[in-house]
Fold this protein.
Amino acid sequence: MKLIEEYIEKYSKEHTRVYDADLLLELERKTHLEVMRPQMLSGYLQGQFLSFLSQMKCPDRILELGTYTGYSAICLSIGLQKGGKLHTIDINTETSEVASEYIQKSDRGDCIIQHIGEAMSIIPELKEQWDLVFLDADKINYSKYYDLILPDVKPGGLIIADNVLWNGAAAKGNPEKRAKALAAFNKKVTSDNRVKNILLPLRDGLMLMLKK
Ligand SMILES: C[S@@+](CC[C@H](N)C(=O)[O-])C[C@H]1O[C@@H](n2cnc3c(N)ncnc32)[C@H](O)[C@@H]1O
C-alpha cells in the first residue's frame, strides 16, 4: 500500500522548507544505502512536521523512544529551549552509531543525549518531567510505554506516537500482533480522559495526545 501519491509528496516537499536540509538529506541517503529497513526513518515531510510541532511547543525536555539513525531526534531537537535536552533511547548499537555521527555533525550535539538499551528499563532511570514525547520504538509495547510515561508528562505536554495506522492494518482489524496492539493503543488513548487526542493520517499515522 502506497502511503501517499508520489506527485503529491513531491509537490508537498517542494513547498516545505527544511532546517539543516543538506545534513538531513545526507542522513536519509546514508540510511537508505547502508542501513537495514530504511523505511523506518521519519523522512522529509514527517521530520519537518515533528520539527514544527517542537518549535510551537518550545520544550525543555523531550523523550524519544526509537532513535534509529537519528533523523527524528535532530528534527525534534530544533524547537528545544536554550539549555533544553532531548533524551533518545534505542536498543540497536549499530544504528545508534550512525545517529551519533549525524548528531555530532549537526549543531545539536550538546542537547541530544543518547541511551542504548531496552526502553522499558531506561525510561524509569531518567527521572524527568517531559514536555514532548515521541513514541517510535517497538509497536507492540506502545500501550505499556504510554502508561509508564504519562504520569511524567507535564500538564499541556504533547505525546506523539508514530505508525498507529500500520499501513491501514490497525483500521481493518487485522489480526497480526502489531496491528492488534496498535488498534488497542488507539482505542485506549481515545477513551482516556487524561488526554485530548487526534489521529492524523500523515504517512503511517501519527497519534497526537495532549495531556490535560
Ligand atoms: C521506526 S525506528 C525509529 C525511527 C526514528 N524515530 C526516525 O524517525 O528516524 C524504531 C527503532 O526502535 C528501536 N527499538 C525497537 N524496540 C526497542 C526497545 N525495546 N527498546 C529500545 N529501542 C527499541 C529499533 O532498534 C529501531 O531503531
